[in-house]
Amino acid sequence: MSTDSGALIDNSGLQWEYVVPSSIESVTPSSAPAGAEVEIFGFRLCGGGSQIANVTIAGIDAVIKDPNRCGTFSVFVPDTGTNVTGDIVVISDDGSKTVEENAFTFISAGTITSVSPTAGQDQVLVTINGTSLFGGGTGIDSVSLAGVGAFVIADRVTDSSIVVRSFAGPVSGGTGDIEIIGNTQARIVAQNAWTYSSILSVSPNIGQRGTRVTLTGVALLAGGNNISEIRLGDKRVSEIVS
Asked: What's the pTM value of the predicted model, to 2 decimals?
């Protein structure tokens, strides 16, 4: 170090090392709604430090999933409240900064617009329509109906329509949310959009030919308009009165 007085200050016991500049090589996905998981891949992102200290997307702090990884790590997209494109800035624990300009675009959260049918029990094919159901990603990880995981029909999945097969729900029936988790971990929810049907009582529960029997329960039409058949034991009833 030199000053304007001509003095030269040197201490060979202290070292300074220039490191190769860091870089962000890819952001996957490059657009997603709030809550999605985004993978950032680059080189020497910790600079001369040992971990990632802070990440901002379009100026807003993101939650870092694995800060000790200096090459590839994930963050969760913050909520901007609006669609916007902005820089990704990575700051390490030694203050090193890596910037990728206009690297990420916030998009509106997906929505579920219709469900058919809206009720049923085990082994029902359910069609879920909507917008951006992948949450900015390329597919989905899971679908649940009123808290029960459903089987996704792989060849009937698009960003606007998903077909699933229901598994058995609670024997007492019940209504709950439909939830889609995209492969970016973006979450799309339709509240109280699915009901598990259930027969709760049969009165009387014994009889012979001609006995009038009343069934009560939850969502007995299972999302349809009419009951096509009822069986008591292994016998088909002769008439459905109402």
From this structure: 0.74
Contact 24, 41 (CB under 8 A): yes
Listed residue (134, 147, 75) closest to 107, CA to CA = 134
- Summarised one tens digit per residue, pLDDT across range 182-207 is 988 888 999 999 999 999 999 998 88
Are the beta carbons of 18 and 96 closer than 8 angstroms?
no
Radius of gyration for the alpha carbons in the chain, expressed in angstroms and rounded: 29
